[in-house]
Design goal:
heterodimer; A: 283 residues; mainly alpha; MetI-like fold; 2 domains; B: mainly alpha; flat
Chain lengths: 283, 306
């Protein structure tokens, strides 16, 4: 095991940095990421006064599930949870259906046109969400799309479509045209080629892009805030808890929201390969 | 001439009708639900609130005359620069670490991705726990002070500090660190993609030449990472300038950034969508200026060196 560290490997130049420095780097990075998550869980199970005062304790000696029980029993987390899950999944599905065919077409355009379109999509991301959100909220109010799953899904598509299209253009550029032409020679129709050859080849890239869209929607705050009067999403629920200022309650709400998603990220991490983003850079 | 080109365009569309049909939904969506709302907001920002005069610059004049707005612009630029610097430095360091082979690398990689799954508002809640006056950063610093005081000749009387409401650079730095924590996985993934794209024979050649590891890092790795750094900077700059949820939760009204300033103008009790729109368009302008300057001054020079 240890030999793997010290063995000079040609493909990376870090293997040859002083080993202690390297070890310190690993430990510090892991601590930096985990400390806040540890705090969140720790505070949510801390009894009464343990988290107040000038020097709050860093460990809990007598954990209590009181705050978790209160948050879960009050039942005001289930509807936000259902709403967040539904909207995130619907947004992801719609984003893939709308963006991937278009990304394929863009990837087959001449380089100048392709570049202009991709930059154009990115420029829409440079506007603050507010600049789009307020006008959208006004329109949606007229259409009865406020406090509505469909309305929020449509709003979340605004933020995700340019991003997913941009990543997928890179993915499709990586799929050689010869593949399509070969299928065409074999007598497959245009759409048949796309469905049976091109999109399956792009599936890993589409999966990663979809994951990012899902996380974006799960995360999103401003559109949800503008398009909600009664039925909160989870981020709005957390914000309310912060506003009320009860530390442990807030930590418990936040922990309920975060722990399942950490498990999802953990389970899906092998799909989050850096290579999936590489196509976007080369484009 | 015009008709000839028109006919050829029409025939080209007919020839490629499958492609047009595939691309149409995306572009229709972007035009209807992104471009049209942006045009609305630009119109609103150029409309005088009192007499509905259009076009008029009164909203922009009111903004630029406002001291709070100017503070918000300065704070936004500072937070964005702080947090970009931190993210790129730390992200590159973490990517270099994760690219090497070491025991438990898989588990460490997974841990480093975890903030991806934490919504920004929750990250803000967590950072409140860390940075508030009775927060855990102070608790850790207290512990350090205690330990240091055991050493002979050291007397460190630590005074606890409310980092988030201290104002000034402390609040801005807190925001930048909170932002870095949340987006570190994305920056790291981009740099890892860059590192994995470097063919090993480049290093083999350097080994033959007997280059030291620092020289290898500076002369080979970093220049080859330049396009990835540019992508990371542009992507992250867009979001760093638009920082909103974290600022709303952490900085409150102590140090306004443009994101929270816009929200404050729009929401009750101010209820002024006109200057809010003008401020939103100004924020867009700021981002465009940054990216333009970056591409002109920095990226062009990096390409030359690479």
């Amino acid at each position: 095991m240890i030999a793997a560290v010290s063995g000079p490997s040609l493909r990376d130049d870090v293997g040859r940095f002083p080993r202690w420095l390297f070890g310190v780097g690993v430990v510090l990075s892991v601590l930096f990421v985990l400390f806040p998550i540890y705090l969140l869980v720790m505070v949510s199970v801390a009894p009464g006064g343990a988290v107040f005062g000038e020097r709050p304790a860093l460990v809990v000696t007598e954990p209590t599930l009181r705050f978790w029980r209160r948050v879960i029993e009050r039942g005001d987390l289930w509807l936000p949870l259902v709403k967040s899950l539904t909207v995130a999944s619907a947004t992801t599905l719609a984003a893939v259906l709308i963006a991937s065919p278009a990304a394929y077409v863009i990837s087959r355009l001449p380089i100048g046109v392709r570049y202009t379109l991709v930059v154009g999509l990115l420029v829409t991301r440079m506007f603050p969400e507010f600049a789009i959100g307020v006008s959208v909220a006004t329109r949606f109010a007229r259409l009865g799309l406020v406090d509505d799953y469909v309305g929020l899904t449509l709003a979340h598509l605004i933020g995700s479509l340019p991003f997913i299209a941009w990543i997928l253009v890179g993915t499709f550029e990586g799929i050689p045209r010869d593949l399509e032409e070969a299928a065409g020679v074999d007598g497959a129709s245009r759409l048949g080629t796309l469905g049976r050859v091109v999109f399956p080849a792009a599936a890993p890239g589409i999966a990663v892009a979809a994951l990012f869209v899902w996380l974006y929607s799960w995360n999103e705050f401003l559109y949800a805030r503008l398009l909600t009067t009664s039925q909160n999403t989870l981020p709005l629920q957390v914000f309310q808890a912060i506003d009320r200022g009860a530390k442990q309650q807030m930590a418990a709400v936040a922990a309920v929201l975060v722990l399942p998603i950490l498990l999802v990220v953990y389970a899906l991490q092998r799909y989050l390969r850096p290579g999936a983003l590489a196509g976007a850079v080369k484009g | 001439m015009g008709t000839a080109r028109g006919r050829s365009l029409a025939s080209r569309i007919r020839q490629h009708r499958v492609e047009v049909a595939l691309a149409l939904p995306l572009f229709a969506y972007v035009v209807l639900l992104t471009v049209a709302p942006i045009v609305d907001t630009i119109r609103l920002s150029l409309t005088a609130p009192l007499d509905a005069r259009f076009p008029s610059l009164v909203n922009y004049q009111a903004l630029f005359a406002s001291e709070v707005f100017r503070t918000a612009v300065l704070n936004t630029v500072l937070v964005a620069l702080f947090s970009l610097g931190l993210q790129l430095g730390v992200g590159l360091g973490v990517a270099l670490i994760l690219h090497a082979r070491f025991p438990f690398r898989g588990s460490v990689r997974t841990v480093m991705l975890l903030p991806l799954g934490v919504p920004t508002v929750v990250a803000g809640a967590v950072m409140l726990l860390v940075f508030s006056r009775s927060g855990y950063l102070n608790a850790v610093l207290f512990a350090f002070a205690d330990a240091a005081n055991y050493l002979p000749g050291v007397e460190w009387r630590f005074v606890p500090l409310s980092w988030t409401v201290a104002g000034g650079w402390r609040t801005l730095l807190t925001l930048a660190i909170a932002d870095m924590w949340k987006v570190l996985p994305v920056v790291t993934l981009i740099f890892l993609a860059g590192l994995e794209s470097i063919p090993p024979d480049v290093y083999e050649a350097a080994d033959v030449d007997g280059a030291t590891r620092w020289r290898r890092l500076i002369r080979i790795t970093l220049p080859l990472l330049a396009p990835y750094a540019t992508m990371a900077i542009i992507l992250r700059a867009i979001d760093a300038f638009r920082i909103f949820e974290l600022a709303l939760v952490l900085a409150g009204r102590v140090e306004p950034v443009l994101g929270t300033y816009i929200w404050g103008r729009y929401a009750p009790p101010t209820n002024d969508p006109y200057t809010a729109a003008a401020a939103a368009i100004s924020l867009f302008g700021l981002i465009i200026i940054f990216i333009f300057l970056y591409l002109r001054l920095v990226a062009a020079r990096m390409e030359v060196r690479a």
